[in-house]
Specification:
Largest sheet: none
Shape: globular
Radius of gyration: 22 Å
Number of helices: 18
Number of strands: 0
Structural class: mainly alpha
Strand content: under 5%
Order of helices and strands: HHHHHHHHHHHHHHHHHH
Helix content: over 70%
Amino acid sequence: MSTLLRKSREFDLGGLALTRLCTLAAGLGANVFVIAVLARQHGPETYAAFALIASLVNLLPFADLGLGASIVNATADRTSGSITEAAFKRQVSRARDYMLIVMVLLLPVIIWAYAEGYLSSALGNLAGESGIVVGAAFTLFCIALSIPLGIGARALQGCGRMIDVVRLGFIGPGVQILTYVILFVLDSPAYLYFLGPGTAYILNALVGYLVARRTSPLRTEWPFVSLFRRGNGGDSPWQTALPFLLISVGMAAGFQSHRLLLTQYGNSQEVAEYSVAAQFLGPLIAITSVVGQNLWSRYRGQIHRNELEISAFKTHILIFAIIGAIFVVGYVSLMPLAAWLLTGNSVAPPITLLLGAGAYLLVYAIHQPSAMLLTDPRALWYQAAFVVAVAVATIMATVSSVPYLGSAAPYVCMAASMMLIQVLPSMRLAVSRIARQSAA
């Protein structure tokens, strides 16, 4: 037990988990406030419009095309001393320049879509809500501008400072709550609330960039200079970015397909049951993921210094298994009460759904050490292949099992597929990588 506690303190497990929980609570507070104001004073259609605009920020993880992962690796390599300051500066500058290109390409597309009415068409029936088209365009603009600024948070993560990255999560809810309170006091029109999510995200990215510039080794060349510099600039950022992008898209596609599959092969009640269960599972997944990400730079540095031991890696797997088990017990025990409070007993997730979701959470937790160790380009391609295979297997198994498992089918199938196709092979690859680190 003392060994587990010592290993947990080494990557600040408790501090990260508690801080992430607090940021999630702050975000919930901002969301509850805006729901109360918009739904009660302006009607459900206005809140639906706000919710649609706020959901656009979910595009942020894909907007940098996976280039942020190359920043994490480069910063971790610089911190461990495996690359020089000059090589680090070139690698980060190239990734930043590609992000700038993505931003420069996106901005005129957003303007064109707004001017030609395509953005209005994409919003469907909600396009008639006052200010929603402008709000959507503004949010997309903020997302585009945030892409190159996102290198700040990635650099902090590469330095092993995930706690600072998580603390930045207070900025978004804080900005939104302050903005919404001012708008509420001034009795402002509803469409001004639509500007809140985009403003919060770009300020979050900006502060992260400024913090990284001040407190980390993040230094870059003048924009686009690195793309025209001849000579060896190190590995291309796309060697890491492409498989990481595929992993991100594959995981998101897998999750988004769950409700669609239940809609096609189940019924509306099963969709509602799944949605309620997923609403409360999401924060636990987020906390587990954040704690795991603190191992990324740590593992990379230890591998380069030939310091990572298989026993330490196995201990981390055990720690995350315990974390997952604790979360599962709490989730399965409290979820029925939470669903009753939220829906008034109109939606009661069955025990099979709760156990299936818990099984997925446990498998996800166990996978974190392997996922954070296998971050070199070749290993990321393996991970990408595993993710795609899991997504395909989950969809096929869910389609055939919905008549028997109902709303539990997606989580049960994903937990089984992930364990067999992704987690166990990844553990084997990770152990192999540790065993041959001295020869790398």
